[in-house]
Design brief:
The protein has helices spanning 16-26, 45-49, 62-71, 88-96, 113-121, 136-143, 153-161, 198-211, 219-222, 227-230, 234-238, 246-257, and strands at residues 12-13, 33-37, 55-59, 76-80, 102-107, 129-135, 162-170, 175-176, 183-190. By secondary structure, it is an alpha/beta fold. Bound molecules: S-adenosylmethionine. Residues 8-13, 37-40, 43-44, 58-61, 64, 82-84, 107, 109, 112 line the site of S-adenosylmethionine.
Length: 258
């Protein structure tokens, strides 16, 4: 019997209703290419595989990799590795050659969720959809709108790249062992209208980091270094980072990158 490892963020889903809802949301079909990050003992893996021709697993825990290799299930490819270092773009390009949708799914290890979400942005061009279970607080920040106290650097950067929706709230009892926090499922679809170049994206990171560097301070202070190039209005100079819309941050990134 596998004992859950804290360092790998192992909390195994056991609520059948929630497992069913997540699999229904992923809507697996034969021509779809799916990679699951962190299959654990297979709460999502087995029901997914029964509706897919092929499923790729990416798992860091050697014992779980050995377990899945031993299971030797038809259509399953087991990759031992760290999701933070995995080249999702190369995976998606390779898989999508045969046509069909490319999806990344997983009940993610919560201790690496933000860096992993940013790492996945690099592959967004070739991925059609992501469905993840995350800490509820993180999902609330991801989908928060300008003006709300949850609106943060994570909200702006991810909303610039994805359409996102909190789909399901999940209580700790749905897992074994139960985590200390509430969880939520988020659906992320890369924005069709995304048009930033790499240097514009870098500028977006720069201006957003500066704007949110001191949440309570006005942009007059936080964006002092950029103010002349951005043409901030009087109202914007007095505003705080959380009051500015994602579209306005994108406009600033474009101005900064020229
Ligand atoms: C929250 S558990 C989810 C397990 C299973 N999917 C479930 O729902 O019951 C997280 C899984 O991610 C794996 N994991 C942790 N860190 C990882 C990393 N950096 N790269 C890939 N997998 C990782 C863990 O070993 C574990 O299998």
């Amino acid at each position: 019997m596998h004992r859950a490892r804290k360092r790998f963020g192992q909390n195994f889903l056991q609520d059948q209703g929630i497992i069913y809802s997540i699999v229904a949301l992923i809507n697996p079909s034969q021509d779809m290419h799916v990679i699951e990050i962190g299959p654990g003992l297979g709460a999502l893996t087995r029901p997914l595989l029964s509706n897919l021709d092929q499923l790729d697993l990416l798992e860091i825990d050697r014992d779980l990799v050995a377990y899945w290799n031993q299971e030797n299930l038809k259509g399953l490819t087991v990759i031992e590795g760290d999701a933070l270092k995995f080249n999702f773009d190369a995976w998606a390009q390779n898989r999508s050659k045969k046509m069909g949708l490319c999806k990344v799914v997983g009940n993610l290890p919560y201790n690496i969720s933000s860096p992993l979400l940013f790492h996945l942005v690099e592959a967004a061009e070739h991925i059609d959809e992501q469905v993840f279970m995350l800490q509820a607080e993180v999902v609330e920040r991801m989908v928060a709108q300008a003006g709300s106290s949850d609106f943060s650097r994570l909200s702006v950067m991810l909303q610039a790249r994805y359409e996102m929706e909190l789909v399901l709230e999940v209580p700790p009892e749905a897992f074994d062992p139960a985590p200390k926090v509430n969880s939520a499922v988020v659906r992320m679809i890369p924005r069709k209208d995304f048009s930033l170049t790499q240097s514009q994206w870098n500028s977006l990171e720069q201006v957003v980091a500066a704007a949110f560097s001191q949440r309570r301070k006005m942009l007059r202070t936080n964006l002092q270094a950029f103010a002349a190039r951005l043409g901030l209005s009087d109202e914007e100079l007095k505003a705080r980072a959380q009051d500015i819309s994602v579209d306005r941050y994108i406009e600033w990134a474009k101005l900064l990158a020229v």
